[in-house]
Amino acid sequence: xxxxxxxxxxxxxxxxxxxxxxxxxxxxxxxxxxxxxxxxxxxxxxxxxxxxxxxxxxxxxxxxxxxxxxxxxxxxxxxxxxxxxxxxxxxxxxxxxxxxxxxxxxxxxxxxxxxxxxxxxxxxxxxxxxxxxxxxxxxxxxxxxxxxxxxxxxxxxxxxxxxxxxxxxxxxxxxxxxxxxxxxxxxxxxxxxxxxxxxxxxxxxxxxxxxxxxxxxxxxxxxxxxxxxxxxxxxxxxxxxxxxxxxxxxxxxxxxxxxxxxxxxxxxxxxxxxxxx
Length: 277
Known about the structure:
- There is one protein chain.
- The protein starts with a strand and ends with a helix.
- The longest helix has 18 residues, at 257-274.
- A 9-stranded mixed sheet has the order 1-2-3-5-4-6-7-8-9, sandwiched between helices.
- It is α/β, with parallel strands linked by helices.
- α7 runs parallel beside α9.
- Helices cover 36% and strands 23% of the residues.
């Protein structure tokens, strides 16, 4: 990986990095925070939401003071492939900046939009090879990235010790953002969509027993709550299969990084406990 820049932060080192991805066929960018000390350290992977790059979480979430205290490496990749030769759409909720953490099966998205493979195969292996990790990791994210964190953890539970989310798109098959993206990336077969729907995956019980608890924070004043996010579908699915899930509705909070910065310490501590730190 090529180091683009570094910053000292809370006794540790924050790096912005770029590498050529086999999964997407494009350069991919990310940030990695390594806490003070020699390690090895467990890893927490953050997945960001629509329109974001690796920079949104890195500069706005305020995660690194607590990550340094807890001894956690924090990895924040970009949300999609990018570049002049990469398919795109004029709308903010499709194309570059809106990868939805799936592997596209439809043209023109198929060649580069392989974000599931990028995260679970390439990125994880690359971080373990380049940084002093214990090999243990957890995943969390926001909005589209909350959907990504939940679905990747439920689809690949052997890779993650724990999962949490802020304001996740809980059931993309039942909201406008998800229906638009899945139609484009996965085609019109709704059975294929269901394989990337957190509420449906949770309700199937396929990952039951793999996570002792799932933590969800949701702003009660979030303008996308009713039409797009629908956390009640997650809680209903969890209850149906006996999966422990804590949904914390936070009065007055919206969809912004002010919301995430207010509760990021809780999520880092949640994962640190399950990562053995």
